[in-house]
DNA sequence: AACCGACGAATTGTCGACAATTTAAATGGA
DNA sequence: TCCATTTAAATTGTCGACAATTCGTCGGTT
């Protein structure tokens, strides 16, 4: 999984690189959720000083992938059902508002870009050459574009810089690369339409429904497993 | 200004203490907004090692009071009008949802507690022994209680742990300890009523209106200054 | 047998020094 | 005088070592 993110900046310092490596490892579960992090051990494993590793840990803490207690240590966050539901509720609030702001602030160029993206998506998954691809990458692409179109730096940083790392982690660990593709496509389409029409109120409502539907879909899947 | 925060934990390590001191200094403008931070200078000033100061800087970065660029250094965020409006839009989204969740998840004890708080507020500002007190502390008290009542850890962390430090900073630097107290009181009252009635939809709408009104009020004040 | 306290090992927090990068000044040429 | 290049100073990033705290073990007491 490429793990691209619009707010991502090229890693320049070694702490940046360790941060990205650990981020991948945590999202994909190679460093297990809920596990304790041993600074000396990981420092040796990644071949860096403990200071550098701590720097990386600090950034992981910033995007809520690890939690640290004073004099106790760091733990990877654990993926609970309640945490997942809370995350989706938060997304509903933030992305709903981002969608409303997008309807107000989007540029014409961005509208063209989003419609082109939708066009691509309408063909790719129909060919069935990878439903999972659509769901994973295409869905994130769509949401990222909407958020960026809000032109609200506060919202962009919160959602892309913090929340979405957790979203990826949950998707990965709970194995949610599943369908809902066609319905999601229609919903994406309607949302873009509302944004293009500059109808902020409708755009927000549709986005909130879209995320809520996704939450309920996931909820039922989890209940099925249990 | 006491700067109390429900998510605040007692500072145990020295980095904690430096963090709190700098937090106060930034919020109150003693370390000017937008200014560059010299690690060696501040380390000497606070009588700590540069590592410890960097640890404090990392936490300030977590609550969006400081921004750091690799190999360049740290700057205090600067207070712009656009930033303020973006912050209020974000609050509208998050606290609106928190208010809806509060209506769903609040306990009876918490309802009693909130009503008692409202009772206190109804008397204190009427006595005019400190309108600024009401606006500063009382208003924050109210919002904190609503957020905590949501019982959504994700929302609580985001709003109390990050957003509200910025809110305090803007209030302080733009000198917003001003009235709007009586209208705000009525709005608080209606919101609590909706929560007590377990009417999530209404509670969210009222909270969003409340914050939007506050934003517009501030907007007009700023325009007056210019 | 269960509980409490002391001791030792391991982990985290803090420090100062060195390396790498950026910023500023200084030098030289057009 | 202005601009480009080089050089020096300052700042940030990284490292290893020491101090402080926590965790686990052991022994003793009730």
Descriptive labels:
homodimer, 226 residues, mainly alpha, Arc Repressor Mutant, subunit A, Four Helix Bundle (Hemerythrin (Met), subunit A), 3-stranded antiparallel sheet, 4% strand, DNA-binding
Q: How does this model look, in words?
A:
Two copies of one chain form a homodimer. By secondary structure, chain A is mainly alpha-helical. The first copy, chain A, has two domains: 63 residues, Winged helix-like DNA-binding domain superfamily/Winged helix DNA-binding domain (Arc Repressor Mutant, subunit A, Orthogonal Bundle), CATH 1.10.10; 145 residues, Four Helix Bundle (Hemerythrin (Met), subunit A), CATH 1.20.120.530. The first copy, chain A, contains nine helices and three strands. Chain A has a three-stranded antiparallel beta sheet. In chain A, strand 2 and strand 3 form a beta hairpin. In chain A, helix 1 crosses helix 3, helix 4 packs antiparallel against helix 9 and helix 8 runs antiparallel to helix 9. Chain A is globular. The two termini of chain A are 27 Å apart. About 2% of the residues of chain A have low confidence. The interface between A and B is medium-sized, with 28 and 28 residues. The structure holds a DNA duplex (30 and 30 nucleotides).
